[in-house]
Design brief:
By secondary structure, the chain is mainly α. It has a single domain (9-110, 122-250), classed as Up-down Bundle (3 helical TM bundles of succinate and fumarate reductases), CATH 1.20.1300. 73% of the residues lie in helices and 0% in strands. The chain contains eleven helices and no strands. It has helices spanning 2-6, 8-42, 61-69, 72-103, 120-123, 125-142, 148-152, 160-168, 171-198, 204-238, 247-250. Helix 4 (72-103) packs antiparallel against helix 6 (125-142). The chain is elongated.
Length: 253
């Protein structure tokens, strides 16, 4: 077992499995966040019931989604998925640095690419990973620390709509996130089919299909994230009449 984990195949297998956790985590996360866009189209963006009861009929879809994320099952699953995310990032950095020291260049994971026509993202997964990791810390301080972490420590989570408005009301923050989303898209495009290739689905027929499926999945995830950020920017800067209740609250951010 130890020999397998230290072999080039074993290392890529760990990256593939942890990458699967990442994809599931992002798909769940983007779907819940996209509820805020649906709320805008329904005219209920920012609607939170005064009773402070979870799954209240008076809550908007985004608030209901956040309530769902705090249910016992999801509360257990999210840290597991997040752990896979952390392993994927940490292990990827370690393998890339190890490969850099051995080969004198930044190449994908533990082995050199076998294809001359590999995509740009395939050849720069480490660089994309660093971009994603850099903005991830920024993201965690703006959202996770003020919501899930508060609940884990016995506190009260911030209003999710308010956090969206407070973060994306600034154009420069929106621009940073858009760059981040593009990096995530490039990373997922290659990572999706590479994950299946590692576990044996590497014949030409299936590889072509998996590349198409990977583009569809990664595009869906990233488009949902982009729509959430742009929608929050529009809500914060052009729909102020609908959010007068946020003025005194935004002052503290």
């Amino acid at each position: 077992m130890a020999n397998f984990l230290t072999s080039s195949i074993g290392k890529k297998f760990i990256q593939s499995v942890s990458g699967a956790f990442l994809i599931v985590f992002l798909l769940l996360h983007s779907t819940i966040n996209f509820f805020s866009v649906i709320d805008s189209f329904r005219g209920i963006f920012g609607k939170v019931a005064e009773d402070a009861v979870k799954f209240s009929p008076g809550d908007g879809w985004f608030q209901l989604g956040c309530d769902f994320m705090s249910t016992p099952f999801i509360s257990v699953m999210v840290p597991v998925l997040a752990l896979g995310f952390i392993i994927h990032i940490g292990y990827g950095i370690w393998l890339s640095l190890e490969n850099y020291s051995k080969r004198g260049g930044l190449k994908r994971y533990a082995v050199a690419s076998k294809a001359r026509n590999d995509s740009w993202s395939a050849k720069n997964m480490f660089i994309l990973g660093l971009v994603i990791l850099g903005v991830l810390f920024f993201h965690l301080t703006h959202f996770w620390a003020k919501m899930q972490l508060q609940e884990f420590t016995g506190g009260e989570a911030e209003n999710p709509y308010l956090l969206l408005l407070a973060t994306f009301r600034h154009g420069w923050i929106l621009a940073i996130y858009l760059v981040w989303f593009v990096a995530v898209w490039l990373h997922l495009n290659h990572g999706f089919w590479s994950m299946f290739q590692t576990v044996g689905w590497n014949n030409k027929k299936w590889l072509r299909r998996l590349k198409v499926i990977g583009i569809i999945v990664s595009t869906l995830i990233v488009l949902m994230f982009i729509s959430v950020a742009v929608n929050a920017y529009v809500e914060a800067n052009f729909m102020t009449a609908s959010h007068q209740w946020t003025a005194p609250l935004l002052a503290k951010f």
